[in-house]
Amino acid sequence: MKNILITGGSGLVGKQLTALLEQKGYEVAWLSRRPQQRTHFLWDVARQEIDPKALEWADAVVHLAGEGVAEKRWTRERKQAILRSRTESTALLHRAIAAAKQRPSVFISASAVGYYGFDTGAALLDEGSSSGTDFLADVVRAWENEVKKIEALSLRCVILRIGIVLDAQGGALAEMLKPPVAAPLGTGAQWMSWIHVEDLVRMFVFALEKTTLQGIYNAVGPYPATNQQLTKEAATAKGKPYLGLGVPEFVLKLVLGEMAAMVLGGNRVSSQKIQKAGFEFEYPKLTDALKAIF
Q1: 40-44/49-50 β-pairing
Q2: Please, which pLDDT band fits residue 83 given cuts at 50, 70 and 90?
């Protein structure tokens, strides 16, 4: 396995994954609507168009593409965009792989712990836990169902259900620490299943290289934290003032609308399955992860 094709390569995870793969000697190409300086193949999900050479070039595909779920308020149109960016991109890849004369042998897809539902309390969830019934759970379930169609083409498929990604350059951590004073959201008691971005990138490489790995795995660290704990420790690591009084629920609903359910709820998700498969975390504990980031 030499050639790795990535969708969503310009995103937070995609850029770091590309760098690590190239460091390890792989050839990396991105699927992009606007091919630029690096090796790119053209695709356009809205038009359902893709360069057929891309899937014949690739030994493996890493599928990261999808509209950000927390970037804009959830209007009806935005919710459709979040869903379709995932299902239609995966369906396009399915058709291209099925038509390819020489197919990749491995397909690794991002997914999300949103599969389990907005708020599952303190219950420890594993990959066999039931799906939620809210908007994001519906999106993730539909997304994973499209990936399973690719698996039916006799490719080795791995789905990584990603939790809250911690990184200084973007994502949830940057948003949490944006206000002048850091404060928990709502009660702060909701669980947050987090993972350091470097561990997540390493997990994607692990999934590519470990030929016995197949199926669904939670991409979260071993020690979930409450929103209050994570906010307080992040503020300390960043050297930012921390206010123990939580942002009231009604304020979050006023500002975020339906999207408030995503930050007021949470999940306590297990990483045991991926650890039993042999993956070792560089940053298993929150304090160490935050210290490395800041």
Answers
A1: antiparallel
A2: very high
